[in-house]
Amino acid sequence: MDIRELLLELRTTPSDRAVSRATGVHRETVKRYREWATAQGLLTGPLPPLEELQTLLAQTLPGLQPPQNTSTVEPYRALVEQLRRENAEIAAIFGRLQDEGFTGSYSAVRRFVRQVDPRDPRTTVRVEVAPGEEAQVDFGYVGRLLDPETGELRKAWVFVLTLSWSRHQYVEFVFDQKVETWLRLHRNAFEFLGGVPARIVVDNLKAAIVRACFDDPQVQYAYRECAEHYGFRISPCRVRTPEHKGKVEQGVHFVKRNFVAARPQLSLPQANQEVRHWIATIAGQRVHGTTKEQPLRRFEDVERARLLPLPVVPYDLAVWKLAKLHRDCYVVFEGAYYSAPFRLVGQQLLVRGGSREVRFYTRNYQLVATHARAAQAGERKTHLAHLPPEKVPGLTRDRETLRQQAAEIGPAVSEVVNRLLDDPVLDRMHTAGQLVRLAERFGPARLEKACARSLRFADPAYRTVKGILTQGLEAEEPVALAPAPPAQIFVRPAEELVGDLAGGVSWN
Q1: What secondary structure, in 3-state letters, does 402-433 show?
Q2: Helix 444-456 crosses helix 411-421 at what angle (to 10 degrees)?
Q3: For the purposes of burial, counting CB atoms within 10 Å of the CB of 165, is it exposed (0-12), middle (13-18) or buried (19 or more)?
Q4: pLDDT score of 212 more than 60
Q5: How far is CA 498 from CA 488, 490, 504, 505, in A?
Q6: pLDDT for position 65
Q7: Residue 270: CB atoms within 10 Å
Q8: What pLDDT is stored for residue 63 in this prediction?
Q9: N or C: which end of the chain has fewer CB within 10 A?
Q10: Would you say 154 and 147 are in contact if contact means Cβ atoms under 8 Å apart?
Q11: CA torsion sign, 449 to 452 to 458 to 463?
């Protein structure tokens, strides 16, 4: 280390002890160098060349030798160069040198590495955009706010949308980061601004981005639909690069430091009410450190007119989910049951749940069902066309419908159905329905004749009618049976009776 490097350390580090640890120079010596440099005016302004500094030191402080020019890391040069070729970081090199017996400071290693391997420092480029071109959005945790419904403190987050050109903000506090909340916050922000930025830069949040992938982001269906509705483009940040949305990152910190910190124990409605006033009177009126202008004035004078116009109808806040169509031909969504075509049983359907209706799509976005939104969990929404045809009659028939259908077929069928339905003990509605459905298989005329035959034989049962139809007996006339002769048991001839009366044969 030479005198020039030591002076640079003295300029940046006010503590003599810290300079001593960083340079390996004794603390008392550092103190003398600081006093000398202060007297010579060397701690401010440009430094003279090294040769002049050494001459000045020899003339004004002759008893003090200049710092050594050989680094304490020099004995380890070969190892440092090898590790640097392997792209080892300075901290890793420092740890390896300590394992090898090095007792110097980290600063000495840092200076030596920069000497043997002077790489370009990491740089950033500030990107500025045109008015209305871009907004950046983010969530930030703000601690706990009071929930007025329960009276308890809950974890809360702040949503901040910052216009990149004017730095004007929209701020709202919420209790969750659900997709529904994410969409509602966008709608509220656009209505607050009176327009829509052309591009929204978002972090890789689960609420907005399904997978953290910049080149091919799988944006959630709901956010994509919201973007299409308002006309903005979604621009996700690269993974682990929060500096790509540094404007809103600073905005979140500004809200937390200047609004939240000064207002502890607020309820959520109070926080959202007061933050609007704070934006208009404090955040919007401050002179921004970068633009050197007031954000609210820049917005009102220039950027408001450059925003995209709001659509006539606000976004419906639809939520998209994947759900399975179960064997009963119903999909469960938000606790309610909605029917879908039975041919899709077992498949995963895309469900779009809006505030007024629920739609179902196949994975290739083919619409297959639409229902009015259920009012509460447990409600069942059914389109009969979605169910297997053979299952529908059993769901739609009641007693009066069965009596009417039987009467339309014929009087005999009506008589049989009425007897079944009028059973005082058993509920025979299912059996009556089966009997009426025999007309679909055998025809109404044959069913009428079969029922008439069963009535003539005093056996109007479903199994009897079906047996007649199966054997084709409904067209045959019933055979007239001859009356049976009276029983002959215990019958005596008249002569025996007369004889007995005359005192003849005994009547035994």
Answers
A1: HHHHHHHHCHHHHHHHHHHHCCCCCCCHHHHH
A2: 60
A3: buried
A4: no
A5: 19, 16, 8, 9
A6: 55
A7: 15
A8: 62
A9: C
A10: yes
A11: positive
Instruction: Return the half-sphere exposure (C-beta side, CA atoms, 13 A cut-off) of residue 203.
Output: 21
Tokens, residue 201: 């830069």
Do the strands 380-381 and 336-339 form a parallel or antiparallel pair, or are they unpaired? parallel
How far apart (Å, rounded) are the C-alpha atoms in residues 270 and 90? 50
| Per-residue confidence band for 430, with pLDDT thresholds at 50, 70 and 90 | confident
Distance CA 474, CA 14 (A): 115
Answer whether 38's CB lies under 8 Å from 101's CB: no
What pLDDT band is residue 106 in, cutting at 50, 70 and 90? confident
Q: Are 197 and 134 in contact (CB under 8 A)?
A: yes
Record the tokens describing residue 256, joined without a space: 């937390």
Distance, in Å, from the CA atom of 385 to the CA atom of 382, rounded to the nearest integer, reads: 9
The residue type found at 498 is V
DSSP class per residue in 113-135: HHHHS-PPPP--------TTSEE
**Res. 50: pLDDT tops 60:** yes
Give the chain's length: 508
- Residue 448, φ and ψ in degrees, nearest 5: -60, -45
Three-state SS string over 370-402 comes to: EEECCCCCCCEECCHHHCCHHHHHHHHCCHHHH
The C-alpha atoms of residue 251 and residue 414 are separated, in whole angstroms, by 79
What's the whole-model pTM score?
A: 0.55
CB 420 within 8 A of CB 462: yes
The structure tokens listed for 127 are 């990107």
Highest mean pLDDT among 35-44, 58-67, 140-149, 328-337: 328-337
- Copy the structure tokens of residue 273: 């009410």
- End-to-end alpha-carbon separation of the chain, Å? 156
